[in-house]
Design brief:
Layout lengths: L8 E3 L4 E3 L4 E4 L3 H11 L3 E11 L6 E12 L5 E5 L7 E10 L6 E7 L8 E6 L23 E7 L8 E12 L5 E4 L11 E3 L5 E6 L18 E4 L4 H5 L14 E2 L2 E5 L2 H6 L8 E6 L4 H5 L6 E5 L2 E2 L5 H12 L6 E8 L2 E8 L1 E2 L9 E4 L4 E5 L2 H6 L9 E6 L4 H4 L7 E5 L2 E2 L3 H14 L4 E7 L2 E7 L5
Parallel strand pairs: 1-11
Antiparallel strand pairs: 2-3, 4-5, 4-7, 5-6, 6-9, 7-8, 8-9, 10-11, 10-13, 11-12, 12-15, 13-14, 14-15, 16-23, 17-18, 18-19, 19-20, 19-21, 21-22, 24-25, 25-26, 26-27, 27-28, 27-29, 29-30
């Protein structure tokens, strides 16, 4: 816990009204700022957690300790924070929340709740004693900012400043109306302010500072990644009134799978193929053995309607909507697909199946003898590494520093095909092979592997004594 005195920092940046020849007084007076600080900062908390980030290429998971700003939004300990805490490739664990400042600081365990699909925020539930109450903020759901309006932001400074609560000013520099109203800030925001409250000149908490996920991070329909935004309270107020539950994380229905890689039908492509410039989803790859292949979809087909929903994709961000639609379609029923093939309309029916296990969900085995953590070879890894479907084996996820595998030069991403005298087709094969090699205690263990397009041996030389 932090015992030192915390100093409240004020940063005046882009929050002053400019005249032609000089700076005018700040928009917010000191009295106003201090009043808002007293009302808001008790609800600002510090979240410490372990981030487990999966490599999309190798399936390797890297763990690192990190922190984020949290904002308590209900008296019973519901906490809101930025949505990058949980994404397609990042999962938090060991979550601890520090509430209060200085001598009044107290640490609690917390659990992650189901993440909303339509706004990039996360919710946590503090594990407090029954009846315990927390300071919290109340949002004004209909107080949406205007163009050019200044906002007062609250956040947490870095560890070198003892995580002091701070404030800075920003301005709404643009309002984008479609596909939904988006409020853009005029300047970048320090990380310690992401997820923090945004307050207008009337003292109303209008929303929180946020960044959208990019498509590569799992961003959905509303993707304005890379620029600081204000998520207006109307986007998330419903989740405060009826919080997501922890149980829902584990009761999700399985994602549906079509088995195609796609791209948008841009105007240039439409002109090249002599097609109407109305957009569509171009099939660039059909996965072998997938529902798409069984239904007869081919490379170059242009999907114009899926399950009754017109497809009008003209940009890469539009493809995210198609992916989401497929993923949420019911399994096992006939789905109508309308497409263009060589310019001619064609109707077909496809029956979606459950999406194959992804690398981040695959089974793994930790070998403490040789220092290898290996994972099942999944369909998505085969596609990323351009491996034939018949490729068997396990993929190395981690190599323990200083282990026999590490000394032999093995590294994450290597695919083990044979371990000693034992062929490896699955996690079970590898586990059995390790046990038998450990019992035999040979001077050298040849490991036949695939590294990219090449195959070869790593020679492990254990010192059994």
């Amino acid at each position: 816990m932090i015992k030192s005195r915390l100093v409240f920092h004020i940063i005046l940046a882009a929050g002053c009204v400019l005249t032609a020849d000089s700076y005018a007084a700040p928009v917010f007076s000191s009295a106003f700022i201090n009043a808002q600080r007293d009302g808001v900062t008790p609800a600002v908390c510090l979240i410490n957690f372990t981030a487990e980030v999966d490599s999309q290429r190798t399936g390797e998971t890297q763990r690192r300790s990190t922190r984020a700003l949290g904002l308590i939004v209900s008296p019973d300990g519901l906490v809101m924070t930025h949505g990058h805490m949980k994404s397609d490739r990042s999962t938090p664990s060991n979550i601890r929340v520090l509430v209060g400042e200085g001598d009044n600081e107290k640490e609690y365990d917390a659990v992650l709740l189901r993440k909303p699909d339509d706004v990039n925020v996360c919710f946590l539930r503090i594990q407090a004693e029954e009846g315990e109450r927390f300071p919290y903020v109340t949002f004004a759901p209909h107080a949406e900012p205007d163009l050019g309006q200044p906002l007062l932001l609250f956040g947490i400074m870095g560890d070198s400043l003892d995580f002091a609560r701070g404030a800075l000013m920003r301005m709404i520099s643009a309002i984008i109306e479609k596909p939904r109203t988006t409020y853009c800030l005029d300047e970048a925001v320090p990380f310690g302010y992401v997820g923090g409250p945004a307050i207008d000149s009337q003292g109303r908490v209008t929303g929180v500072v946020g960044y959208d996920l990019s498509p590569a991070e799992g961003g959905e329909l509303y993707v304005r990644s890379g620029h600081p935004l204000v998520y207006q309270a109307s986007l998330f107020e419903k989740y405060i009134q009826k919080p997501p539950t922890e149980d829902e994380i584990y009761t999700d229905r399985p994602d549906a799978w079509l088995g195609v890689f796609t791209q948008p039908l841009t105007d240039d492509l439409a002109e090249y193929w002599d097609l109407p410039k109305r957009g569509g989803v171009v099939v660039s790859t059909v996965v072998e053995g997938s529902p798409a292949e069984e239904a007869g979809l081919r490379r170059g087909d242009v999907i114009t309607s899926f399950d009754g929903t017109p497809m009008r994709a003209t940009r890469n961000t539009d493809i995210v909507g198609f992916t989401k639609l497929v993923r949420e379609t019911d399994l096992g029923r006939d789905v109508e697909v309308k497409l263009l093939r060589d310019g001619e309309p064609l109707d077909m029916t496809v029956v979606l199946r459950e999406r194959p296990v992804a690398a981040k969900d695959a089974d793994e085995f930790v070998d403490e003898v040789f220092g290898l953590t290996v994972r099942e070879l999944t369909t998505d890894v085969r596609l990323l590494l351009n491996l034939p479907d018949e490729t068997e084996g396990v993929i190395v996820r981690r190599v323990t520093s200083g282990s026999w595998a590490h000394l032999a030069g093995m590294r994450p991403g290597v695919i083990i095909l044979r371990f000693g005298d034992f062929p490896i087709r699955s996690i079970g094969d590898f586990e059995d092979a390790v046990d038998q090699v450990k019992e035999a205690k040979p001077r050298e263990v040849p490991v036949f592997c695939r590294v990219g397009p090449r195959t070869g041996f790593f020679r492990l030389q254990p010192r059994w004594e």
